[in-house]
Amino acid sequence: MAAISRQRITGFSNPTVKFLRSLRDKKHRRRERRFLAEGLRLLTDARESGILPEMLVMAEGRDPHSLTDALENAVAGAGGTIIETPPDILAKITGKANPQAIAGVFAELDTPLSTLDRTAAPIWLVAQALRDPGNLGTMLRTGDAVGAGGLILIDDCADPFSVEAVRASMGAVFTQRIAQARWEEFLPWLRAGDGQLVAASLRDAVPYRGAPYSRPCFILVGNESRGLPEEYEAACDLRVTMPMRGRADSLNAAVAGAVLAYEVLAAFD
Amino acid sequence: MAAISRQRITGFSNPTVKFLRSLRDKKHRRRERRFLAEGLRLLTDARESGILPEMLVMAEGRDPHSLTDALENAVAGAGGTIIETPPDILAKITGKANPQAIAGVFAELDTPLSTLDRTAAPIWLVAQALRDPGNLGTMLRTGDAVGAGGLILIDDCADPFSVEAVRASMGAVFTQRIAQARWEEFLPWLRAGDGQLVAASLRDAVPYRGAPYSRPCFILVGNESRGLPEEYEAACDLRVTMPMRGRADSLNAAVAGAVLAYEVLAAFD
Asked: For residue B260, what is the domain's CATH number?
């Protein structure tokens, strides 16, 4: 099968190009259960986290790089497909005028909630109906930084495997566990074991600084415009407030999650 | 002049429509020194902060709202221009398929560094070469929340008056002072008065938690991919590190600024 595993593609209408382009679209990503990640740094982060793309797409005439060689060898060794294509076709695939010289197709990395080991980390981030893929990616990145176990997506969130989310995660999409669940599944799962559910809230809340956090701590962040539904807040073990000294009554969702996560991290140290 | 101050525009090729559309482009914004903000909430935030648009653009057939009436009256009372236009023309102006029913043109709100009163607030945010307008808007929003005085933009930053930055600021573009300067101007200005310059850094740094912050504290955040130039870090009074427990060695720029700003706020309380 070596003949299939290495291809050169020169035509825009090639079916593989169409397949790759379709991965920019959520509907197609869902159906294929595959996503696209771009750039040598991101793909190297993936490799160093033990995750290889099924397909590696490289621009012809790219600058040589030892990390590119390492990727190519690893993908070939694992039986993956390697594609070389002119830069303008790669630009069409990634939808960027100045694309990175390398991209990879990965199998989606969802973990079923039922198989998540909550004892593996002291902190978990939970996003409820977050609509901005950049916010999801930023939460993954923050999760990596605070040593969180992963990000649990509740209700209808943006796609964590979209190009923007993957890019904003700076590689954390490959290191953080990602689970997706409805609230009606999440809450019973949480209550079946240890776990403190904490939300930033204005209702019946204590100051976030020095609040009685306990492990494993699940930090719940709500939708960008509506915040958390009242019943979700009511189900939390701890509601905390952050100072708001200005006109606004809330922070950006990813920022609120990060300020809270760093506070919890400090409390656990 | 009442005849000029109220117009109905029905044609896409109307010069006012062209002017309004051009404000989505940085070059034109700079030349006109005007920017566009969309949405009743944002425009109401502006009004409540004492800032009115020079021109108010409203979609015909919009739902009536007392806040819209209040805006209209205020703009008319101040001698501004009020424009009514079909929703599809407003969509073309804002570049969104589902535009808000109202938008306003504001004079840019830069404050010259030389007129900034540093004693007016205990915290100031400083962004160096930040390229993402969403990050700038998020920093403005965080600044509002921590009671900062404003955001100082050093070197070539994204435009704080772009539609994305204004939107992400959630109104803070109207409450935070915004100054733009080269590093070569900023540092002498800073050193001519009180002010501690603090950066998140890996070099010669102390833990960010419990570091000796002092007022007014200027929190410096560097470019998204390159971070701060070494000489800028060296010029800081205090370099602090945040825990990085994962693979990554940095946080999103707006997140790093926010975690640090909340720590400084707690230290000053």
From this structure: 3.40.1280.10
Q: How many domains does chain A have?
A: 2
Same domain as A122, residue A31: no
- Picking from A168, A172, A259, the nearest residue to B262 by CB comes out as A259
pLDDT at residue A201 in the model: 85
Note whether A144 contacts B255, CB cutoff 8 Å.
no
CB contact under 8 A, B259 and A259: yes
Backbone dihedral region for residue A227 (phi beyond 0: left; psi -120 to 50: alpha; all else: beta) = left
| Residue type present at position B121 | A
Statement: residue A100 has pLDDT above 90: no
Element (H, E) at B239: strand B238-241
* Closest residue to B258, CB basis, from A244, A255, A265: A255
Distances (CA, A) of A47 to A50, A112, A160, A171, B256: 5, 22, 19, 10, 26
CATH number at residue A52: 3.30.1330.30
Considering only CB atoms, which chain A residues are within 8 Å of B243?
145-147, 262, 265, 269
- Asked whether the predicted pLDDT for residue A4 surpasses 60, the reply is no
Quick one: A173 and A198 in the same domain? yes
Closest Cα of chain B to A203: distance in Å? 18
Mark yes or no for CB contact A141/B248 under 8 Å: yes
pLDDT of residue B56: 96
Domain of residue A58 covers: 2-107
Q: CB distance B262–A265 less than 8 Å? A: no
Q: Is B14 exposed, middle or buried (0-12, 13-18, 19+ CB in 10 A)?
A: middle
Please, which pLDDT band fits residue A94 given cuts at 50, 70 and 90? Answer: confident
Asked if the Cβ–Cβ distance from B252 to A138 is below 8 Å, we say: yes
Q: What are phi and psi for residue A179, nearest 5 degrees?
A: -125, 150
Q: What is the pLDDT of residues A51-85, one digit of tens each?
A: 999 999 999 988 899 999 999 999 999 999 999 99
A46 interaction partners in chain B (CB closer than 8 Å): none
Mean pLDDT, chain A, integer: 93
> CA of B14, closest CA in chain A: separation in Å?
32
* Distance of alpha carbon B193 from alpha carbon B214, whole angstroms: 13
d(CA B38, CA B104) in angstroms, rounded, equals: 6
Encode B77-89 in three state secondary structure: HCCCEEEEECHHH
Residues of chain B found within 8 Å of residue A260, distances taken between Cβ atoms: none
Contact A170 B248 (CB under 8 A): yes
Q: Does residue B248 carry a pLDDT above 90?
A: no
Higher pLDDT, A6 or B157: B157
Inter-chain CB proximity A254 and B252 less than 8 Å: yes
Residue B117: name the closest of B14, B182, B195, B232 by CA: B195
Q: 3-state DSSP call for residue B218?
A: strand
Q: How far is CA A109 from the centre of its chain?
A: 9
Whether residue B182 sits in one domain with residue B125: yes
Which residue in A175, A251, A265 is closest to B142 by CB distance?
Answer: A251
